[in-house]
Amino acid sequence: MSILAKIAEIENEMARTQRNKATAHHLGLLKARLAKLRRELITPKGGSGGATGEGFDVAKTGDARIGFVGFPSVGKSTLLSNLAGVYSEVAAYEFTTLTTVPGVIRYKGAKIQLLDLPGIIEGAKDGKGRGRQVIAVARTCNLILIVLDVLKPLGHKKLIEHELEGFGIRLNKQPPNIGFKKKDKGGINFTATCAQTELDADTVKSILAEYKIHNADITLRSDSTADDLIDVVEGNRVYIPCIYVLNKIDQISIEELDIIYKVPHCVPISAHHRWNFDDLLERMWDYLKLVRIYTKPKGQLPDYTSPVVLPDEHTSVEDFCLKIHKNLIKEFKYALVWGSSVKHNPQKVGKDHVLEDEDVIQLVKK
Q: Residues 144, 171: contact at Cβ < 8 Å?
């Protein structure tokens, strides 16, 4: 029996099962089995894994990477060529783009790499079309733009989300607040710091038993679902912010546009007419959460043209030094910082000081 047949069988059984307290345990087990089979699909067992698709592994350049995901012919290539000035072949038939086309834009001093990925079709996560490679590239992006046709958005949106979820990509979500620690002996130690509606000790034990884990500490710090627990145990999930770009707004009325604007994480644009690009760029910048640090050589004015761009979670002075060169930190004595992260301008700080957006820094070496 093939993996796909097994997955279909489990999905059918889950659809047949009524959801209530008595069946929660059984559903949790089925979900765990499903997650294991999905993982086998993504990473086939043994062997050298066959030839990878040509032109898919694009070298990472710039400060952040944004992937355009969408069905064929929704205007991804037009959007890329109008944003970045890169020519990605555009035509009126489906599947024009066959490999990843990279482009780079400069925005607020940061170099941002844009990837035009080939169209995703239904069943991509099961390896149909070029789907598996497309989604594998999408996993490495800092932000995903799901490009939708404004005339048929919702069906497409659900399908694409389903494909990405099946690949372990979680859109616009935070990692679940669950502590999970394997140990050598002592059985399963289960603690919940708040009331749980779905998980109880037995369900947790049975899900872990499915993964052949019999000794572990599990701490639930929020009201979690079986899916959250499986995500934590699998450990290969990536949490990526996502913007839904509704293209072709030149084909709808103003009233419809007003409704679209109220949808969260949505930006309506027209790639062909270049409408509303500034709003899209601004939204991309917000979601990427990049921090710009300006450098100041001693006795000169700060260089405001080319900032050093750091991701939001790594913005200490040490990270700043490592971004420039890994030997800098060995010679580091202290830094002078001007900006919103310090009380006095300038202030002498050590390597653990956390910088904020648009700070100016001057390094002093030993």
A: yes
